[in-house]
Design a protein that fits this description.
Radius of gyration: 19 Å
Strand content: 35-45%
Largest sheet: 7 strands, mixed
Number of domains: 1
Helix content: under 10%
Length: 284
Amino acid sequence: MSVLKGVGFHCVRALCMTPLAGLALSQPAPSAETTAPFAPQIHAVNCGGKVCGSMEISWYRKFQDGDTSPRLERNGVSIRGRFRSSRDQPREYHYLQVLTEFKADDFRWSRDPDALLPAGFVDVPPFGVRRPETDANGRFRIAEHRFDALPWFDDGEFPLFDDRPRAFLASARVYGRVTMRFETWLICVIAAEQGPDRERVSDDFYVVAPLTGWTWGYDIKHEDVGVLTVDELEDYAFSQMPLSFLAQPTSAFKHSLGATLGRTVTDRFNIRLADAAGCRDRLR
């Protein structure tokens, strides 16, 4: 593989927080992970007909800042897991994550910030995103965060999987709703080749085998159910998607892999799915 394109770390993390926890948005009050205790889920992983390990999701809960002001409060989810290999494998593994349903109009791709992100795309968009943040004084600003050009979600932290996507309630008030629904796959890399253009990903080529996947995510909807015209926490309805494991990628996942980003400036990943039998001869 050639020298990596792009710069910076990898995180939706345009949609989440610092390397794996977010890009430190100000938190006026201590944050909290809520909802009922989550029972860890463990699934066997087969690589070309042979068990090669297990995938465990150990934590999946609602997140909230706990701010008393709806203008500054954020809600979302935290999810954590780990792939445990049954033996040393001559394979390259990663997590490939897609937003299969996305509505958060104040998140934009940095290469063409005037264009809305598509309804589904590889998480994270290559090279960077712009998104709202608040400073220490509670003032909103649009901040740009730069990422590399690889499609993998884990960015050197494999076998750990950790994501904490969240959004301001204020975004749901402006746009009516914030939706982030994810489909994540543990994959084996069969082929990976980067093209000559360091400023594009469409000339790169990947062949991967999906081994085990899971869907998850959340919605925030705004409806003025309290005192009319007064912004209150009760005006926001949060719902957390149940965690569900998958045997095969959904059609939404496949469609989103090649989603085109941008309108004036465009780019897209070139990722093909293949059978796990092809993993056997792929060396790291």
